[in-house]
Design a protein that fits this description.
It is a single chain. The protein is α/β, with parallel strands linked by helices. The protein contains 14 helices and ten strands. The strands form two sheets. An eight-stranded parallel sheet has the order 9-8-7-6-5-4-3-10. The protein has a two-stranded antiparallel ribbon with strand order 1-2. Helix 10 packs across helix 11. The longest helix is centred in the C-terminal third of the chain and has 17 residues, at 248-264.
Length: 343
């Protein structure tokens, strides 16, 4: 795997990260431990989890693997997140100092470690001042509980405001943003990705296969069945079957991905993952495997480098649709400038 710096930090991470949302839910502990060991053996070193993944079970499973595998786990860069509720009390959620202190300490205990390399706030909190959240994160770095911090699911203005406050107050700066990003979901390119690049941060895209759609395993107008995420729950979240199946764009993208895969003699998932990994600002692509076989397939994408022509085909077919203003053609023209001048 290729090594890249963790955003604007000096820490080196593999360009494919291991997401662990399936641990304790879709993957039992034995399978989860095997997935962790396979990932380590393949040269990966960035493990991404969160306190709410299976109500803490994901962190506990990772913690027991860390304890059993000191050699492999010692080189891992460990990332976790906090923000969402882990209890029913009014203060059991959010980005206040009070909740983040409890959340971080609980994550450290479940993981069985004294330090988390990257601690990310899982989403925006409209009730907590950014100054309070950033002050806590800066203090957590000073305490040695975390090395770096980042954000997940922030919009462009939220990220930029946070960066500016951190600079003004002399706090440590954030190093990463974790957004949803795939050939099916490219809306972040309008404002969020430019904000990340402007701040010198790196992106850790989640759901790079569009919830399984970009593996090529689904057929148009045939509702999924069996042991797949959509087969078990066709209404699953943002990748729900009915809505995406009804969009011609979905199938044009899938047809292009599978076409390139056939030409290159690889799986469709390799093409989709290689496209995300090639995008500007991407540090590491989060893989969400629930079986060892799925992980092996995803890791094989590390060997695929798409040509400029292939990237262009994928860019064109998956281009997000925006209205004329502010992100469509006329809006872009108003923000452009020809260096030589002219009307």
């Amino acid at each position: 795997m290729e090594n890249r710096t963790l955003g604007n930090s000096g820490t080196s991470v593999s360009h494919l990260a291991l997401g662990t949302m399936t641990f304790g839910a879709e993957s039992d502990e034995a399978t989860s431990h095997a997935i962790l060991s396979d990932y380590a053996a393949a040269g990966g070193n960035l493990i991404d989890t969160a306190d709410v993944y299976t109500a803490g079970a994901s962190e506990e499973i990772i913690g027991r693997w860390i304890a059993k595998n000191p050699a492999e786990s010692g080189r891992m860069v460990l990332a976790s997140k906090g923000r969402f509720p882990m209890g029913d009390d009014a203060n059991d959620l959010g980005l206040s100092r009070r909740h983040l202190r409890q959340a971080l300490d609980a994550s450290l205990a479940r993981l069985g470690v004294e330090h988390i390399d990257l601690y990310q706030v899982h989403s925006w909190d409209p009730l907590t001042p950014l100054e309070e959240t950033l002050g806590f994160l800066d203090h957590a770095v000073a305490q040695g509980k975390i090395s770096y911090y980042g954000f997940s699911n922030y919009t462009g203005w939220q990220l930029t405001k946070a960066v500016m406050i951190a600079r003004q107050r002399g706090y440590c700066l954030p190093v990463t943003l974790q957004p949803q990003y795939s050939l099916l979901v490219r809306e972040i390119e309008a404002e969020i990705a430019p904000a990340v690049l402007d701040a010198g941060m790196g992106m850790l895209p989640w759901s790079p296969l569009g919830g399984g759609w970009l593996t090529g395993k689904y057929s148009r107008d045939t509702e999924p069945t069996g042991e797949t995420r959509l087969g078990e729950n066709p209404q699953r979240g943002m990748e729900a079957w009915e809505k995406r199946n009804a969009q011609d764009r979905t199938w044009r993208i899938i047809d292009t991905v599978t076409g390139i895969a056939g030409e290159r003699g690889v799986n469709a998932s390799h093409v989709a993952l290689a496209w995300v990994a090639a995008q500007a600002g991407v540090t590491s692509v989060i893989l969400g495997a629930r079986t060892r076989e799925q992980l092996a397939d995803n890791l094989a994408s590390a060997d695929l480098e798409l040509t400029a022509a292939e990237l262009s085909r994928l860019d064109d077919v998956s281009a997000p649709t925006f209205s004329d203003y502010p992100y469509g053609g006329p809006g872009i023209e108003q923000r452009s400038r020809v260096i030589g001048g002219g009307r």
